[in-house]
TrEMBL record:
<feature type="transmembrane region" description="Helical">
    <location>
        <begin position="187"/>
        <end position="205"/>
    </location>
</feature>
<feature type="transmembrane region" description="Helical">
    <location>
        <begin position="33"/>
        <end position="52"/>
    </location>
</feature>
<dbReference type="InterPro" id="IPR010721">
    <property type="entry name" value="UstE-like"/>
</dbReference>
<keyword id="KW-1133">Transmembrane helix</keyword>
<feature type="transmembrane region" description="Helical">
    <location>
        <begin position="107"/>
        <end position="129"/>
    </location>
</feature>
<feature type="transmembrane region" description="Helical">
    <location>
        <begin position="135"/>
        <end position="156"/>
    </location>
</feature>
<dbReference type="Pfam" id="PF06966">
    <property type="entry name" value="DUF1295"/>
</dbReference>
<keyword id="KW-0812">Transmembrane</keyword>
<protein>
    <submittedName>
        <fullName>3-oxo-5-alpha-steroid 4-dehydrogenase</fullName>
    </submittedName>
</protein>
<keyword id="KW-0472">Membrane</keyword>
<dbReference type="GO" id="GO:0016020">
    <property type="term" value="C:membrane"/>
</dbReference>
C-alpha cells in the first residue's frame, strides 16, 4: 500500500483506541491506564507498517519485531504499575487543575497522544518503505542499539521495582544499580530505543523512503524533549522532591538522564 494510505490507517486505529480508553477512564477515573495502552498500540502500529508497507520484506520484519517486542515489554510493565492502583499523580493533578472541564480536556489530551504516537511511528514507517535491504553492518548496529535499549530499560525498571518492594526503602531514594548513575536510566534507554531504527534507513536512496531519511531524527529528539521537559522528569521529580528524603542531594550529585559517575555527596 502507499505510504500515506498506511499512515492514515494507523491514525484511524490510534484514534479509535485512544477514544475507547478515554471512555473507559470516565468510569474508572484512572487516566494513567493510557500509558500501557500507548505502548501496546504503538507496538501494534509497527506490526501494521510491517504488514502493509511495500518495502524490503526483511527490513519490514525487523521493524515489526523490534516495535512489538518493545511495546509488549513496556506495556506490560506499565500495566502492572497502573492496573488496580490509584491514578498516577500526573493525571490526578491535571484532573484537579481542569475541574469541571476535566473530561473534555482529558479527551483533547488523549488526542495529543495520538499525534505524538504518529510522529514517533516515523521510526517504523520509513524503514518499512525502503526498497532495498540495508547493508549488514547497519542491520547489526540497529540490532545492537535496540537490544541494549530494551535490556537497559528492563534492568532499570526491575531495579526500581525491587527497591520499592522492600518496606525498609519506603520514602528513600533509589540509588541501586543504574539509578546510581542516572536519576532516570529508564528514560535514557527509552530515548536510545528510538535511535535504533535510524541505521535501518541509512542508504535507502534519494527517492521514496530515502527522501524522508532526516525525519528519522524526529522520534528520538521528540522522546527526549517530552521526557526531559514535559511529562517525564519535571513531574516525576516534583513529586519525588516532596516525598523522598535526600532527593535534593540526589539531584545535585546524579546525572538527570545519561548514566555518568555521580559527584561526591555532601
Amino acid at each position: 500500500m502507499p505510504l500515506l494510505t498506511v499512515a492514515a490507517i494507523a491514525l484511524a486505529a490510534l484514534l479509535a483506541v485512544f477514544a475507547a480508553v478515554w471512555a473507559w477512564q470516565l468510569r474508572s477515573r484512572n487516566a494513567g491506564m493510557i500509558d500501557p495502552i500507548w505502548a501496546f498500540s504503538l507496538g501494534g502500529v509497527a506490526v501494521l507498517y510491517a504488514a502493509l508497507a511495500n518495502g524490503d520484506p526483511h527490513t519490514r520484519l525487523i521493524v515489526g519485531i523490534g516495535g512489538i517486542v518493545w511495546g509488549a515489554r513496556l506495556g506490560a510493565h506499565l500495566w502492572r504499575r497502573n492496573s488496580g492502583h490509584a491514578e498516577d499523580p500526573r493525571y490526578r493533578k491535571l484532573r484537579d487543575k481542569w475541574g469541571e472541564v476535566a473530561n473534555r480536556n482529558m479527551f483533547l489530551f488523549f488526542l495529543l497522544q495520538v499525534v505524538i504516537s504518529m510522529l514517533l511511528s516515523i521510526a517504523f514507517l520509513i524503514p518499512a518503505y525502503r526498497a532495498t535491504p540495508p547493508a549488514p553492518a547497519w542491520v547489526a548496529l540497529a540490532t545492537l542499539i535496540w537490544a541494549a535499549s530494551i535490556a537497559g530499560e528492563a534492568l532499570a525498571d526491575r531495579q526500581l521495582r525491587d527497591f520499592k518492594a522492600d518496606p525498609e526503602n519506603h520514602g528513600q531514594v533509589c540509588r541501586a544499580g543504574l539509578w546510581r548513575y542516572s536519576r532516570h536510566p529508564n528514560y535514557f534507554f527509552e530515548c536510545v530505543h528510538w535511535v535504533a531504527y535510524i541505521p535501518l534507513a541509512v542508504g535507502s536512496g534519494p527517492g521514496g523512503a530515502g527522501a524522508w531519511f532526516w525525519a528519522m531524527l524526529l522520534p528520538p529528539v521528540l522522546m527526549a524533549w517530552l521526557l526531559m521537559r514535559v511529562s517525564g522528569v519535571p513531574m516525576v521529580e516534583a513529586e519525588s522532591a516532596k516525598k523522598r528524603a535526600g532527593y535534593a542531594d540526589y539531584m545535585r550529585t546524579t546525572s538527570a538522564l545519561i548514566p555518568w559517575p555521580p559527584r561526591p555527596r555532601t
